[in-house]
# Entry
Amino acid sequence: MTIPKEEILKPSHLACPGCGGALAMRLALKALGRRTMVVISACCWTVINGTIGYNYSGVPALHTAFETTAVVAAGIKASLEMQGKGDITVMAWAGDGGTFDIGLQSLSGAAERNDDIIYVCYDNEAYMNTGIQRSSATPIGAETTTTPSPVVKDRPKKDLMEIVAAHDVPYVASATIAYPNDLVKKFEKAKSKKGFKLIHILSPCPPGHKFPENKTVEISKLAVETGIFPLYEIEEGKYKINKKPKFQNLDKYLNLQGRFKNMPKDKREALEEFIKKRWERLSIKAEYFS
# Structure
């Protein structure tokens, strides 16, 4: 497929160099087009989109509180429907802190009601905008300012995809900027469906994950190829794996990021076991629910 050429996201936004979240927004807007409204929770994108008087997203954007992204987006969509403007896509845009943690109740409510919105979690695996604190999306063995070495994160990452899929919504998908065609295709598919849609995007963060700003795409690709971030869809309850990984050595992914520099051996082994078990479950679901 061909990625749309029109650039909707404006240049000179305030993202850090190499920001995975900015690249994700750029591709998402290319797929959805200009008849889109964005609801942004308290997150890095509150800053990226500019100070008062600026809006670098290129489409109407509303900033809202950490915990209310989904419900505000649902309210806007309902209002547009009443005005006869149902063709406008409403995209909720939040980080992992505002999705996995603080916004989970609002997200669950919108999914249960099957509100007609696209909910996007750009996942940088910590509360990056407020000081790189641990979230429930932080992987095992990662350092954050609230899990400094030798403590590190000792619990597995929450499975957001399965939590949302349990609400029996039309479409749930994961994506990453390393595979832009796949990402754009999933947004176009989400746009074509009525009801609640979730797209979970891995968004590496150079300052938070402690890697050079020119490594964002490489790290995104390695996350897929090592199996740590599966690319798959759940469409009307049917599972489809979009890219089967080569299961490259996990060290290729870990060694590029300073947050794993002091990862204890037992935590690395726990992460490998977590990846193995998740892929076993996902493979079974893709076989029997396809």
In short: Strands lie at 36-40, 61-63, 89-95, 118-123, 171-176, 197-202, 231-235, 238-243. The CA atoms of residues 27 and 184 lie 6 Å apart. The chain has one domain: 20-138+157-249.
